[in-house]
Amino acid sequence: MELPVTGLYAGALTLLFIALSFHVSITRGKTDTSLGDGGNPVMLSAMRRHGNLAEFLPLALLLLALAEMAGTGMIWLHLMGGLLVVGRLIHPLGIAPDGGIFAARVAGSLMTLGALLIGAVALLLAAFG
Asked: Coiled-coil ranges per the record (predicted)?
């Protein structure tokens, strides 16, 4: 079974994952931190930017794939994927040693949770509808 919508968003979000991974590696070099955060708030911020995406991405992509397989309408699939991409792009702006842009963190979190909600509702409707 082909999953073109899931593939599109999985590809885009994987590029973001790779970028955040590089950011962690570069920050490790700059802060001379080989393991953990070393008590350095800059290192901790880089790790949490990457870690937060790593925590949400598997469930979000699973929901998107299952919703696509269940025949959820394209508008809903692209809304879910779009919310994920935009939310995950802006969320890291709110994670910084100085607090970052708090509104970006909140908006990114809400967009991500909205995408998860769309996926969950779509699957429940498919199961009971």
From this structure: none
Go through the domains of the chain in sequence order and give each one's CATH number: 4-128 (1.20.120.550)
The answer for residues whose C-beta is within 8 angstroms of residue 40's C-beta and 6 or more apart is 31, 33
Q: Do 122 and 70 meet the contact criterion of CB atoms below 8 Å apart?
A: yes
pTM: 0.93
pLDDT tens-digit profile of 73-121? Answer: 999 999 999 999 999 999 999 999 998 999 999 999 999 999 999 999 9
Report the alpha-carbon distance of residue 106 to residue 96 in Å, rounded.
14
Instruction: Report the Cα 92 to chain-centroid distance in Å.
Output: 10
User: 45 and 84 in contact (C-beta within 8 Å)?
Assistant: no
